[in-house]
Amino acid sequence: MTPKNSRILITGACGSIGSELVERLLIDGYTVCAFDQSEDGLFKLDQRFKLKHGGQLKLFVGTVRDKDRLFKALEGVNVVFHCAALKHVYLSEYNPFEVMQTNIVGTNNIINASIMAGVECVVFTSSDKAVNPSSTMGATKLLGERLVTAAHNYAGDHKTRFASVRFGNVLNTNGSVLHIFREQIKNNIPVTITSIDMTRFFITMDQAIELCLYAAKNSIGGEVFIMNMGCCSIMSLAKAVCNNKPFKYNVIGQKPGEKLYEELVTESEVQRTVLKDNVYIIIPDTLDIMQQTMKDNYEKSYKILPALKESLRSDRNLLTDSDVHVMLQSNELIE
C-alpha cells in the first residue's frame, strides 16, 4: 500500500471499522493517527494497544466538522481512511441536519484538508444504502461518494488520489442485527424481525478491512470499490444465530428509511462496473473531464475487463440457510 514508515490517519478510529483498521495497520508496522471525537474511545484504544504498539499509535481528539483541527492532524500523513460517520438509519431520520454536518460537510473537510496537506490517498467508507437511497443516512453517503469522486476535478496537479468503498452490512459491528438477536436470545425474548421478506448484503469484518486496503493500494482515482459479497434474508440470519433451533419472533415492521432489499450497483452504474480480484470497481462517469494521464491509466487498467451485465440486488441469488450458518460459524460469530 505504502512504505511501512508511513503515517496513516483513521477518522472514526473508535468505531467498529476504524478500530479494526487501527489494529491491522499497527500490526503491519505503520504509524497510526487515531482521530475521533470520543475521548473515552481513544483512551480505550490506547489501553488496548500501548503495550505492543505504544510508539506507533498517535491519538487525536477532534471532529471532522472542524477543518482546522483536521489540517493539524493531517501533518505528515500519507494515507487517510475516512470512517467517521453517523450511520444509524433510524436515528438519522430524526436528526438529518446533524447527519449532514458529519457525513457531508465532514467529508468535504477531509477532502480539502487532505489536498492542502499533500496526502497521497484518501479512502472513504460508504454503504450499499447510498444506492438509490431511501434514508437520510443513505443520501448523505451518496453525496459523500460524489464529493470524493469529484475531488479529482479540482485537485489539479496535487498528488492526492481519492476512492470510495461500499460495504454491505458488516457482520458483528456495534449495534448490528447480530448483536440485537444475541441479546434477545440471551434474555429469552422473541427475536424482532422487521419483515420476513427483508434481505441484506453481508460482509465480514476481515473482508471490509481488506477492501479498504485494496482500494488504497489499487485506486487510480475516483473509483468506487465493492467486495463481491453474499446476501441472505433476515430470517436466515435469525435461524443461524439460533443454531437452527426453533425460536419465537415478532414482526415489528420497517423503520423509517428502511428498504426491503438493498443494492450494490445502480442501473446507471452497471455498464461502467468491472470485476477484478473478486472486487467490483465502478469507473466514474466524470472520466471524460479528468486529466489525460488519469484517462490513460484507466484505459490501461480497466478496458480489458468485462462490464457488469445487471444490477446487484440483495433479493436475488440468496444464500441458503445452511450457507448462512456456515458463514457465521466460520467467522466465529456463533458457537
Account of the 3D structure:
40% of the residues lie in helices and 20% in strands. By secondary structure, the protein is α/β, with parallel strands linked by helices. It has a domain at 7-168 and 204-228 and 265-311: 3-Layer(aba) Sandwich (Rossmann fold), CATH 3.40.50. The strands form four sheets. A nine-stranded mixed β-sheet has the order 3-2-1-4-5-6-10-15-14, sandwiched between helices. It has a three-stranded mixed β-sheet with strand order 7-9-11. The longest helix has 22 residues, at 96-117. It is globular, with a radius of gyration of 20 Å. It starts with 6 loop residues before the first strand and ends in a 5-residue tail after the last helix. The relative contact order is 0.12.
Task: Provide a concise account of the structure shown.
The mean pLDDT is 93.
Q: Indicate the proportion of strand residues.
A: 15-25%
Order of helices and strands: EHEHEHEHHEHEEHEEHEEHEEEEHEH
CATH topology of the domain at 7-168 and 204-228 and 265-311: Rossmann fold
| Secondary structure: helix percent | 40-55%
User: Structural class, please?
Assistant: alpha/beta
How much is the average pLDDT? Answer: 93
Residue stretches low in confidence (pLDDT < 50, at least 5 long) are: none
The CATH homologous superfamily of the domain at 7-168 and 204-228 and 265-311 is termed NAD(P)-binding Rossmann-like Domain
Give the oligomer, counting copies of the same chain as homo and different chains as hetero: single chain
Q: Characterize the overall form.
A: globular
Total count of strands: 16
Any guess at the CATH architecture of the domain at 7-168 and 204-228 and 265-311? 3-Layer(aba) Sandwich
N- and C-termini, Cα separation: 35 Å
**How are the strands of the biggest sheet laid out side by side?**
3-2-1-4-5-6-10-15-14
Query: How many helix segments?
Result: 11
Radius of gyration: 20 Å
Main β sheet profile: 9 strands, mixed
What's the CATH class of the domain at 7-168 and 204-228 and 265-311, please?
Answer: Alpha Beta
